[in-house]
Structures are given as structure tokens and as C-alpha cells.
Amino acid sequence: MRSATSATVFPRSTAIRSPQRGRSARFAGIAIASLGPAIFWSVIIQLASQWMDVPLSPVALGAVFATIAVFLFAICAPLMLRKPTAEAVITAAVRGGRSG
Known about the structure:
Structural class: mainly alpha
């Protein structure tokens, strides 16, 4: 009985394929990652200030919101927009091939 073994070598263009995400999907992800927590913490700060009987002005609350949102945008945008390393892409391709 013959035993057939084959070493299949995929061309580089097939093995490493970066995920194709639209620009709007990336922007939506960054917006959710920066605006969501900013809204949450602004509400928490407003509730805490009302609980302590020191109400914040809308300008102060807006400044807190903007500061948190800009900080998170500055942190999240480079992380979410970076190109994946070749190792991560190959790992994702191998996992994707085995799921079928």
C-alpha cells in the first residue's frame, strides 16, 4: 500500500492575507472605544458630584468628557490602525483554515 505525503507550500500572497476592513468600520471601532468610556465616566462623575452636593457646570462636564475621549482616541487609534505582524496574520490564516 502506498503512503502519499505531500508538503503543500502556499505562495506567499495566499498564505499572508491581511483582513480587509473598511474605513468606516475602523472609524466606528475607534469611536466606540473612545466615546463609550468617556460617556460612562462623565455620567459617573456627574452622579458623584450630585451625591456630594457639588454640581458640575455643563462646561466642566464637557471638558471632562472631551479630555477622556481625546486621551482614549490617542491611545486606541494607533493600536487599532496598526498593521498586523506577519506572525499574527499567519496564525489567523492557519486558524481560519482549520475551522472548516
